[in-house]
TrEMBL record:
It comes from the Eukaryota. This is Serine aminopeptidase S33 domain-containing protein. SUPFAM superfamilies: alpha/beta-Hydrolases. The keyword Metal-binding does not apply. GO terms for molecular function: monoacylglycerol lipase activity; short-chain carboxylesterase activity. Coiled coil: none annotated. InterPro entries: AB_hydrolase_4_sf, AB_hydrolase_fold, Hydrolase_4. The chain crosses the membrane at residues 52-71. Pfam families: Hydrolase_4 (PF12146). Residues 182-394 form the Serine aminopeptidase S33 domain. It comes from Lactuca saligna. The keyword S-adenosyl-L-methionine does not apply. Belongs to the AB hydrolase superfamily. AB hydrolase 4 family.
């Protein structure tokens, strides 16, 4: 009897719990109905009790996380590294004589790059360079060089004599500048000698003692298009003629080339095309795109990159409008006016004038990546892995390991040609790195010597239009544009260029005798400055 009662009780307990469970929803609905007709109204009333300041803080936090990732900030990474920056990674062939004799002595390439803390984003670096780069103020000395097909390019010269305004330099010393090593600078897409980063480079190197000349592309630098052709990313003929022209006047002077952005692609392609017959002693490529097709795919990938694509496309359209009569006659002008991307401009303009069937064919044939293995002179390549224009996917890692003449220096940060460092953002790291590399290279035993000059060079220099007043002008110090100057200044510029381009046999004899001594003094001074 007792056991039977226990069993009956055990079955009655679950039934009571089940009835209680069924009654809970009715109880909860009664509680909700006591506060209002809808549960969402109860939720809104609860949210309204949270202070508005908490919502503001939460929104700002979400916005900061979004912008931090969207703009690729790295301020926290810099903080964790103690604001010491990240080491520069060098890629080279283990048997490279260039590394052991030159790059191993470059302190900047074996150090760290730390970007300006308040510019800790590749997009801030790149944008700051374009709009707030604070370029130095100086005047170029212009030479107009005539090409074989009738085209003209502006060669803007800058020497230590031009930038040392506060020093009294004797005429003899100014003349000796013509025997100093020469650096030819190749600007990027739609850039010229007046661009901010070009001014930073030329001013710094001229102040350090180099003779610097910016080879502006056709139609840029204030000169007109005089033939039915304009430059493109794979066009190396103009650079070859400019180098040949300068070498013909300075056979015993070390000659280097520095290419930037698209100009670096043109320069590397030129080095590979000429191989062992190259007329220069060394080169440096900064922020080179390497593979134009990959960069075209990359620059249209997401919202940030598309912003750069539109900005570069707008620059090309401004270039076309300056020479509208030329482009209207030879290209699809309606397509150029509608273009919003670089690719669209290239399809309507570059491909038609350059005789390329499609934009992809133009990019493949103009890319320099296939020419790296043929380079026979020392080449330093500097690239930032966070470059928002030239993707790291195109960087030539394997090619640098295979070619003993190429050294690749990559940094984690820097943006596209930015590389500002220091709290005041007045210094540009890659400018100093290039200067140090070329300084050590010019004093090394592996520098390329031009012992056998082509007959075309021995016959005389290429024709130059330095005697035509309309094409001789300087850059005003108060503005970033080119102005024509008065006859007195024109005459002084002509005298300067005549002094630099010595035509008499007596002057050539003097240069030949003094060049080796001056070059040795220059190399010794520049090398000791590094320590």
């Amino acid at each position: 009897m007792i056991s039977r009662q226990v069993i009956t009780f055990s079955f009655k307990l679950p039934r009571s719990l089940i009835s209680l469970a069924f009654s809970l929803p009715h109880i909860s609905m009664e509680i909700v109905s006591s506060f209002g007709d809808s549960p969402y109204e109860l939720l809104l009333r609860s949210l309204s009790l949270i202070p508005i300041t908490h919502y503001v803080v939460g929104f700002m936090l979400v916005l900061w996380v979004f912008l931090y990732n969207f703009l690729e900030f790295h301020i926290f990474q810099d903080m964790f590294s103690g604001f010491r920056g990240q080491r520069v990674d060098l890629t080279f062939n283990s048997c490279s004589q260039l590394y052991h004799e030159v790059v191993s002595k470059c302190t900047l390439l074996h150090g760290r790059y730390m970007s300006t803390p308040w510019l800790s984003s590749p997009h801030l670096q790149t944008t700051f360079l374009r709009f707030f780069g604070r370029p130095p103020v100086f005047d170029y000395r212009r030479e107009i060089f005539s090409l074989d097909d009738g085209g003209i390019v502006a060669l803007d010269w800058l020497t230590r004599f031009d930038v040392m305004e506060n020093e009294n330099i004797a005429n003899g010393e100014a003349h000796q500048d013509s025997n100093m090593p020469i650096v030819v600078v190749i600007p990027g897409l739609t850039s010229d000698s007046d661009s901010v980063y070009i001014k930073h480079l030329t001013f710094y190197m001229a102040k350090r003692g180099w003779n610097v000349v910016v080879s502006n592309h056709r139609g840029l630098g204030g000169v007109p298009l005089t033939t039915d052709f304009f430059y493109n990313g794979g066009w190396t003929a103009d650079l070859r003629k400019v180098v040949k022209h300068i070498r013909s006047k300075s056979m015993d002077v070390p000659l280097f080339v520095v290419g930037t952005s698209l100009g670096a692609n043109m320069m590397v392609k030129y080095l590979g095309e000429d191989g062992g017959d190259i007329l220069i002693d060394g080169a440096a490529a900064v922020c080179c795109p390497w593979d134009l097709l990959l960069c075209d795919r990359f620059i249209g990938r997401n919202a940030v990159q598309r912003f750069y694509d539109k900005a570069l496309g707008a620059g090309l359209k401004r270039y076309a409008k300056k020479h509208q009569q030329f482009f209207t006659r030879l290209s699809d002008w309606d397509g150029i006016e509608k273009a919003r991307r670089v690719r669209e401009f290239d399809t309507s303009g570059t491909c038609r004038i350059g005789k390329f069937d499609t934009a992809d064919i133009y990019y493949r044939e103009s890319s320099c990546v296939g020419y790296v293995e043929r380079i026979k002179v020392p080449l330093l390549c500097i690239s930032a892995l966070d470059d928002p224009v030239c993707t790291k996917e195109a960087v030539i890692w394997d090619e640098c390991r295979a070619n003993k003449n190429v050294i690749l220096a990559t940094t984690q940060h820097g943006g596209h040609l930015g590389y500002f460092d220091g709290m005041d953002a007045k210094g540009v790291w890659w400018v100093r790195a290039v200067d140090e590399f070329l300084t050590v290279l010019s004093s090394s035993t592996i520098i390329h010597k031009q012992n056998m000059m082509p007959d075309s060079l021995l016959a005389g220099p290429q024709k130059s239009l330095t005697d035509k007043d309309p094409y001789i002008h300087s850059v005003k110090k108060t503005e970033n544009q080119i102005h024509h100057v008065d006859n007195k200044l024109l005459q002084r510029n002509k005298i300067f260029m005549e002094r630099k381009i010595v035509s008499s046999d007596a002057a050539k004899g003097f240069e030949a005798n003094s060049s080796s001594i001056d070059s040795f003094i220059f190399i010794l001074k520049r090398f000791t400055d590094q320590f």
